[in-house]
Amino acid sequence: MYRIMLTFISGLAMIYTKSETGLHAIKDRHAVDITRAQRSALILFDGKRSLREVLDATASLGVTASDVEVLVASGLLQPSAAVPGAARLEGSAAVPQTAARPDDAAVPLSEEERVRRYRVAYPLATQLTAKLGLKGFTLNLAVESAQGFDGLVELLPRLRSALGDEGVRPLQAVLQGR
User: Fold this and answer.
1) What architecture is the 2-82 domain classified under in CATH?
2) Residue ranges for the chain with pLDDT beneath 50
3) Which of 11, 63, 86, 98 has the most CB atoms at less than 10 Å from its CB?
4) Domain locations in the chain?
5) Is the entire prediction scored with pTM above 0.70?
């Protein structure tokens, strides 16, 4: 129990992956006794998403850190690697975890700041894509499936091509913290 708590203390940037037991639990729904919400969270832990990203993605299902603690205690999840302030493992297509303005480009964004910017930018991005009508349907789906701050930053080029520089400017300003 203490070891599990230490894992959570290490931060929400902790990255988990499914154990062999966890992989078996995904294949056979009745192999272990977990809730639907816990199963949904288990599916999302892929060794790339941080604890924060999975909790954000499953918040509407009511998944909490306690649910993840149950998955770890049950041996379904195991710590993969802790990457402070990063949403994905090194070597992936992640955008650098630094502030987006040139004058403070060397200052890394805190997890709280990234979450704050995402919470403001996500509704704005959905509003912008909704203005495109059917033409923006797939882009709207991409926004809805974007995984946190990094996902929206990765979508900026697609949004810019559909909305133009002027149309994407408000979203870009929010993501850059202006």
Assistant:
1) Orthogonal Bundle (1.10)
2) 1-10, 82-106
3) 63
4) 2-82, 102-176
5) no
